[in-house]
Specification:
The protein has about 280 residues and is mainly beta. The protein has two helices and 23 strands. The protein has a seven-stranded mixed sheet with strand order 1-3-4-11-6-9-12, with no helix packed on it. Strands 2-20-17-22-15-14-13 form a seven-stranded antiparallel sheet. It has a four-stranded antiparallel sheet with strand order 5-10-7-8, with no helix packed on it. GO terms for molecular function: 4-deoxy-L-threo-5-hexosulose-uronate ketol-isomerase activity.
Length: about 280
């Protein structure tokens, strides 16, 4: 089965100031993820990050290249990050199997040719969330569990943003060319994914929201600090966050999100911060 493939072109913040709701969603919302037995790839022109998914139910899902990559195989010039948000599964890379439990991650380095995604139980399939970026060097594949990553305790209940940040693919945990990924888990009653709001002009991000109960949504805040916008996001949807945009999410119910970053700087704390009083 051919992959579901879309492209998202980069936008200038001056143009985005004039976007209506429909156009904001067209350019920044990724709402086609987690289709059964289907590889989904959304190619963005922000650092050429690909946001994708694979949900093997009836059969394994193969990581296939597409014509737009002009590559003989998907990871010929790319690296890949995988985080499992569903039932137990396996990622097979050139004959080696990597079992992934819920919230576990796998880094796959440049040059891997045969990659496939498998579920242990079709009634409770694995739901693999994918980020991929161009790579200049071949780093080893690495399975990362929640116990092996760096954990940051952030925020407070008094400011409604107490959370744990699990840095699954970041400098000091696993070597990558530019891709970084992690999980943020909010405490009950907390809603903000990051305050103070910030930009980092040296890298972009994508945010994938999951764990939302039926009928619940997240209001994702984006835009320039003096020109903020918002997008309502459903369960298992993502938002592409340009380097000039702030990023924060307030849910109508509890949720978890995956952040993926790509760019020239691996310093997690490379942020230009803006207090709430400065936002418009």
């Amino acid at each position: 089965m051919n992959p579901v493939f879309t492209q998202r072109y980069a936008t200038h913040p001056d143009d985005v100031r004039h976007y209506d709701t429909e156009k904001l969603r067209q350019h920044f919302l990724v709402d086609n993820l987690m289709q059964a037995d289907q590889l989904v790839l959304n190619y963005t022109h922000y650092e050429r990050l690909i946001v994708g998914s694979a949900v093997p139910v009836k059969a394994p899902v193969l990581l296939q290249t597409v014509d737009a990559l002009k590559a003989d195989y998907f990871l010929e010039r790319r690296e890949l990050g995988v985080i499992n948000t569903g039932g137990a599964g396996v990622v097979r890379v050139d004959g080696t199997e990597y079992p992934l439990q819920f919230r576990e991650a796998l880094y796959v380095g440049k040059g891997a040719k045969d990659v496939s995604f498998h579920s242990d139980d079709a009634a409770n399939p694995a739901r693999f969330y994918l980020n991929s970026t161009p790579a200049h060097h071949q780093y080893p594949n690495r399975h990362i569990t929640m116990a092996q990553c760096t954990v940051l305790e952030m925020g407070a209940l008094e400011t409604s943003n107490k959370r744990q940040i699990y840095q699954l693919m970041i400098r000091g945990v696993v070597d990558t060319c530019q891709l970084q990924m992690g999980l943020t888990v909010l405490e009950p009653g907390s809603v903000w994914n990051t305050m103070p709001a910030h930009q980092h002009d040296r890298r972009m991000e994508a945010y994938y929201y999951f764990g939302l109960a039926e009928g619940q949504q997240v209001c994702h805040f984006m835009g320039e600090p003096q020109q903020t916008r918002h997008i309502w996001v459903g369960n298992e949807q993502a938002v592409v966050s340009p380097p000039w945009s702030i990023h924060s999410g307030c849910g109508t119910g509890s949720y978890t999100f995956i952040w993926g970053m790509a760019g020239e700087n691996h310093d997690y704390n490379d942020m230009d911060k803006f207090p709430a009083s400065a936002l418009r």
